[in-house]
Amino acid sequence: MEETISLKELFQTLRKRLALIVMITAIATMASGIVSYFLITPIYQSSTQILVNQSNSEQLLNNPGQIQSNLQLINTYNVIIKSPAILELVIEELKLEESVGALNEKITVSSENESQVVNIRVEDEDPQKAANIANTTATVFEAQVKEIMNIDNVKVLSEAQLGENPSPIEPKPVLNMAIAFVVGLMAGVGLAFLLEYLDTTIKDEQEIENLLELPVLGTITEFNQENNQGKQAQSAKKGTVRGESFGA
Known about the structure:
- It comes from Metabacillus arenae.
- The chain is α+β, with helices and mostly antiparallel strands.
- The protein has ten helices and four strands.
- Strand 2 and strand 3 (about 115-125) form a beta hairpin.
C-alpha cells in the first residue's frame, strides 16, 4: 500500500511539535550568543602596505620589463617577510614573549594580481599590539631586504593605524546567532518529523480509516475504573439513605 503525505499533514505535524521547535531554536540561538559574547576572545586585525619598486613613472614607461621583474619578486618577498630572519628581529625589537612560529601564524602576507603593493595583515587579541607588529614587520623587512636581496626597491606605503574604537574581526556575534537560529530551526523541524515518524500509535478514527481503508462503524467509550468505582459508591450510599428513610 503506497503511503502519501499531504501538505496539510505536514503543517499539522509542525503545529503539533511547535513548542519543541521553538525551544530548540531558542536554545541554539542563546547558546551561540553566550559563547560569542562571553567565551570567545575577540581578535583584532591591523594591516600595513609596502610598495615594490621605487622607480619614477617615466622609468616605468620606458622599461616595462622592470615592472614584470618586480611582480616576480613579490612572491619571493612574501616568503621572506614571514621568515625567521625577519620575525626574529621583530620579536627582539618589540620584546615579544612568543616564538617565531606563533608570530608567523598571526601574520598574513598577500598581494593583488598584477599589483606591486604587498599587504601585511596581523591578527592579535590586543589591537595596539597587532598594529605594532604590522608596522615593525614592514620596517624591518624594508631595512633587511637590501642585505638579503641586494636590491633597494621596497618602501613602506602606509602604516597601520589604531582607531579610537577598534572593532574585532572575530567573533561576529550577530552572524553566529543567525547561523545558530537557522541550524536550530532545521534541527527542531527534523526532530519533529522524526518523532512523528517513530510514533506508531493510533489516536483517532480518521487514522484508522486511512490505515485500514475501511469505514469506522462505531466507537467504544474509554472506561475509567476509578470513575466507575466512584459512581458505584455513590449509588450504594444513596440506596442506604433511602433504606433508612423507608425504615423510619
